[in-house]
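[stage:ingest] chain + small molecule (2'-O-acetyl adenosine-5-diphosphoribose)
[stage:ingest] validated
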Amino acid sequence: MSSTDLRAHLSQNIIALIRGKRKIAILTGAGISAEAGLATFRGKDGLWAKMRAEELASIQGFMANPQLVWEWYQHRRDVLSSAQPASGHRALAEWERSHDGDFTLITQNVDGLHRLAGSSNVLELHGNIRVTRCFKCGREPIRGVVEFRGEELPKCSCGGLLRPGVVWFGEMLPEPELTRAFEAAEQCDLFLTIGTSSQVYPAASLPVVAKEHGATVIEINPEETPFTPHADIHLSGGAGDILSAMVLSLSAI
Ligand code: OAD
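[stage:predict] done
[stage:export] tokens:
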């Protein structure tokens, strides 16, 4: 469906409702980046259907086999190096530019595609895969990009092993981002949850918090999720089509 066709399907009531909101908070997940060619995590084709999260995305997994973990993240970095933001990322960046009011974009994605698309107020709750930091002292290396090409494991100047700058299962999320994300959820009058299976906490509690504080909550996802029964509106479809149509409609006088 083209954006124009979809625009006709987005009811004028929904557009009028969105247009009236000044404080907007948005949560995105892997579904928005699926349209940039990056795999999601759950579902039959998801990464966790083929790989074991506890081996690849946990402290225990890294301590047991840092080489395997580095190989996997290096592969994902390589795939990402040729990925471009999809229409959903671009539509959100455009929306932020044209919006008169608060606009907070919270993402669970580690791919950095929101910033690449031009979004500026982005909270990366699960870190960023392009970043490297020390497993021991936590510092980021001073010199450039660290790569792992099957030679020696990269090390920090303190002697500790370097690791990808993402949040693993069982780890705390970065405190400033988490605090700002919950503040945005509490204070917004419109919350959109886009392309996430709503299964991973604490991110999955953000739309719940927004709703409890009186916001209208819209979910965009081709599938239903555990949050769907609580959403005020569920828009079933791909993030790119729906967001492009939304932003086009919002810009029309
Ligand atoms: P999931 O893989 O769990 O869910 C992706 C969601 O995107 C599913 O609900 C799909 O139906 C939906 N989807 C697929 N294609 C879509 C499209 N074109 N437009 C919109 N939605 C689409 O990914 P997340 O919910 O992001 O954490 O996963 C959350 C966290 O679990 C990740 O950040 C990662 C993972 O384990 C860590 O690694 C810590």
